[in-house]
Design a protein that fits this description.
This protein has 375 residues and is of the alpha+beta class. It has four domains: 82 residues, conserved putative lor/sdh protein from methanococcus maripaludis s2 fold; 109 residues, Beta Barrel (Elongation Factor Tu (Ef-tu), domain 3); 60 residues, Beta Barrel (OB fold (Dihydrolipoamide Acetyltransferase, E2P)); 62 residues, Helix Hairpins, CATH 1.10.287. It has five helices and 21 strands. Strand 18 and strand 19 form a beta hairpin. It is elongated, with a radius of gyration of 45 Å.
Length: 375
């Protein structure tokens, strides 16, 4: 029992000694040196601006359509007795090719009758003229014979013209778009026979906004008043054909001269020569193809190209001054294209544009800068 009490006293002595030693060491330890917290200015990326000459290219889109398209209708009545092998959807024909023939029997008879009547009227006129010269006929009778002869000749012209109309042909090289009449069908004047279009040139209507027009030199009404077209800017057309991206060259030939009341756009018309490549090498551009267009625009000197993301709001930029202070400045944004923009006014060569987004920037606030290479 006495031994147990001694053991407890030893344990208590050890604990008290440890507490005393800890207190002594704590009292002897020097307090840590106090250091004020350093507040660092935000780190931003900047690019040095340099003026450039910008050659603008305006994007648009549209569908290919024929410049000349004709809905064929019969001008005379009769049965279709002859059809060209080219008279099928997609058939290609040349100017003057006979695409179909309407039965000419009645019209041949009408021509023969008209010729006979002309001969008869000519004989009557010659006789009246001879008798008039001899004083046996009055002037009125001679005039009546002349009128009858003129009427007979007019009837012969009409008969020949109707006979010619039994041949269905066109004055241009083209392609059949749709076939609506066939062999053996009876047609009358006005009956639709089909739709064809010329293959010498195709057109693409390209919608342009008022902002787009600022950067384009398009032909005006005065330029096209005599010929109906003019040499405007070049256009690069692209579309997917057989799974691959293809391109074609075109040129703006005119504008439609009015602003669409619904969309508020102006349409420029680009012309593509020989879209079906019938007389030149290259990729075919079928009618109805949807194409993307890149129009050659004007060039401007002294503009600055910047990342579009650097613009705050509509027209504000942040600049870093020589002593790394923020300057907030309004500029003129000429045009935005994808991830880049062109600006001018209130911008100078060599200035440093802040590219990093700064939360709640204030003019005069300090920043740390790191220079990155401009576009």
């Amino acid at each position: 029992m006495q031994r147990r009490g001694i053991r407890v006293l030893l344990i208590l002595a050890i604990l008290l000694g440890a507490v005393a030693l800890f207190a002594v060491l704590t009292a002897l330890r020097e307090p840590p040196a106090k250091k004020e917290a350093e507040i660092l200015a935000p780190l931003v990326e900047v690019m040095e601006l340099q003026p450039m000459q910008a050659a603008f290219r305006i994007d648009s889109q549209g569908s290919v359509r024929p410049r000349t398209q004709t809905t064929l209708s019969s001008e005379v009545s009769g049965t279709i007795v002859e059809i060209s092998p080219k008279w099928i959807a997609g058939g290609v024909f040349s100017a003057g090719d006979v695409l179909m023939r309407i039965d000419p029997t009645n019209y041949n008879v009408a021509v023969d009758q008209a010729k006979a009547l002309v001969r008869q009227r000519q004989i009557e006129f010659d006789g009246a003229e001879k008798l008039l010269s001899q004083g046996y006929r009055a002037e009125a009778e001679h005039a009546s014979a002349a009128a009858a002869l003129a009427s007979a000749r007019a009837e012969l012209t009409r008969a020949n013209r109707n006979l010619e109309r039994t041949y269905i042909r066109l004055p241009y090289d083209g392609m059949v778009r749709s076939k609506e009449a066939d062999l053996g069908q009876f047609v009358s004047p006005g009956t639709r026979l089909g739709v064809v279009f010329a293959t010498d040139q195709a057109e693409v209507r390209l919608p342009l906004t008022d902002q787009d027009l600022r950067f384009l030199d398009l032909p005006g009404a005065a330029d096209i008043s005599k010929t109906g077209s003019s040499e405007g800017p070049t256009v690069s057309l692209t579309a997917t054909r057989r799974g691959e991206t293809r391109s074609w060259e075109a040129r703006i030939t005119r504008t439609e001269g009015v602003i669409d009341e619904n969309s508020r756009v102006t349409y420029a018309v680009a012309a593509v020569t020989d879209p079906y490549r019938l007389s030149m090498e290259g990729e075919v551009l079928p009618m109805g193809t949807f194409v993307r267009a890149e129009i050659e625009g004007i060039s401007l000197d002294g503009v600055f190209l910047i990342p579009r993301s650097a613009i705050r709001g509509a027209d504000e930029l942040l600049f870093a001054s020589a002593d790394d202070k923020v300057e907030i400045r309004r500029v003129t944004v000429l045009r935005s294209e994808g991830e880049r923009a062109y600006v001018s006014d209130n911008v100078h060569a060599g200035e440093r544009l802040i590219l990093t987004a700064v939360e709640s920037p204030v003019s005069g606030m300090s920043v740390r800068t790191t220079l990155v290479e401009g576009e």
